[in-house]
Amino acid sequence: MTNRTKAWLSVGLLAVTILAGLKLASSLQDNAIARQVAGNAPKTSTPPEQVVLPLPTVSTNDESVAGQTLYQEKCGACHSLDQNRVGPRHGDIYDRRAGTVPGFRYSAALQELDLKWSTQNLDAWLQNPSQLAPGTSMGFRLSDAKEREAIIAYLKSVSQDLN
Ligand code: HEC
To answer: CB within 8 A of 116, min separation 6: which ones?
Structure first.
């Protein structure tokens, strides 16, 4: 072997060593990332007590959050979830038989209305209460279909929470 060949060989060897070193370093780094992802990373990562968990809320989807606001705006003057006011309380209205909230004085129309509140008949009710129950004392209509949908989704979500 000439000196020149030797020189080239050692350059080549050096290059191979460097490449191998880089590869090792990057796989070590991958391991470190994998450990962090797995949650058992050493001191530098966020300790478990700092992990922010979402607080439990009554409603979990966007539609029923919008529904809650709409409910307060449109129905809040007469209804609440937990108290009878001008209208009966609504905390467990979904799937409840019409006219059966204890302690509320319903019109004869509501007492005689023979149905359980579902998405469909709540929608009909909110469009026009007097058409569903002629003689009812609820004199309020909600003409916007999207708003009815959001409010009904909200009432459904709170009712399920109570069950
Ligand atoms: C101006 C007052 C008023 C507003 C506003 C109002 N309600 Fe009512 N609501 C009443 C009254 C009064 C009754 C009882 C009707 C009866 O006995 O005939 C009632 C009854 C109901 C019932 C039947 C309850 C049952 O126990 O069977 C539902 C459902 C209802 N309202 C939903 C709503 C929703 C949802 C809104 C808002 C989009 C709303 N109401 C807005 C006054 C109101």
So the answer is: 95, 96, 97, 98
Region 36-48 average pLDDT: 53
What's the 58 CA to ligand 1 centre distance in angstroms?
21
pLDDT of residue 160: 75
Place of tokens 């391991």: 31
> For ligand 1, is residue 72 a contact (CB within 6 Å)?
no
| Burial class of residue 74, CB neighbours in 10 A (0-12, 13-18, 19+) | middle
Q: Is the alpha carbon torsion for 16, 21, 22, 23 positive or negative?
A: positive
Rounded-to-integer distance, Cα 23 and Cα 147, Å: 59
Predicted confidence at residue 4, as pLDDT, reads 75
